[in-house]
Amino acid sequence: MQNVGPVAIVGAGIAGLTTALCLAHQGFETEIFEQSDSLKEVGAGLQLSPNASRILIELGLLPALEAVWSEPDSVALLDGRSLRSLASVPAGSYARNRWAAPYGVLHRASLQKILLDAAAAEPRCRVHLGFRIESDPEAAIDRAMARRPSVIVGADGIWSRTRTSIAGAGPVQFSGNIAWRLMVPRAEVTAPLSDDRVTAFLGSKAHLVAYPIKEVGGFNLVAIVEGKAGDNVWIGKDSEERRRELAAAFDDWHPKLRALLTSATAATYWPLCTVGDGAWHDKTRTILIGDAAHAMTPFAAQGAAMAIEDARELARCLAESQDAPSAFARYDHARRSRIDRVRKRAAFNRFAYHARGPVRLGRDLVLALKGPESLAADLDWLYGYDA
């Protein structure tokens, strides 16, 4: 697209800011509109797999990332009741060699700050905070900009207002799982956690993922359990009643893990929702990316990675197409199969992680027969992908 107006981006999260930077590298001017008065990322830890980190490296962000993240040596699977090792996938220097990009863990707020600082330093990017869209997103954006945008990108998350302007967009659906995010100071850790690995503990109806967050001197915990959505469909604060529900989900787990969950602080929980299949764009100038288009469950740890891939692919399609509609068609074709495959991997992981009875025994046998190299090879399509 040549001699076009600026691109408007709704949402200054990971998806929106990465999109702005990718578009700027293609020569587009972008204006990012964020409803919050200040950027405070909800959540705690974040895993950045090689398929995402290589895109951030292309944007020149590796030094900033290396200053705040950790690169675990492995991703380990353990049994949540016995603490028995089930499998391990090498990461660290192995990831850099095999997938040509690192596997890092860091605080979400740190990544958002890195992206925001990069956008602030990029002359082609402008960020507007405190911009709230009440109705008709396109009209609101048009009024806010001096020049009519050629493209509007909805990067405003699962509860996207931009999505309301897309006929046939996918519906928000509750996945049947509740996620808890908690933090544990390093000094209080008694369970088998390690600074050099991501650890996933598996059990029937629940699993627990733990990894170090260098910036806070402790471990990020993500506990995912089966449950009901309840009245609050976004995010809930800690409470005695909810803590009892969390404890009940892990009541037959190893005592060290139960103690870890009991002592953890900064707890938040929320029902895990997804966005079902549907239209991603209006075939004219508005398009959805990231969670706004295809929010998925976190069982493959690919939510942020898919948004980062989306950003790079959309920028490429816009740069190489004659107009927005043809760019959208190319983007749709490029991303549909990829998103579908990652969704299926997340669904498979959910089945495997929460397995019980004979299925659990079969899972453990299969994992025991696969070595680290074989498990890594199974992820080549995911981590080796170049958007």
UniProtKB/TrEMBL annotation:
GO molecular function, one term: monooxygenase activity
Keywords: FAD, Flavoprotein, Monooxygenase, Oxidoreductase
Pfam families in alphabetical order: FAD_binding_3
Swiss-Prot/TrEMBL cofactor(s): FAD
Protein name: Salicylate hydroxylase
Coiled-coil intervals: none
Flavoprotein as UniProt keyword: yes
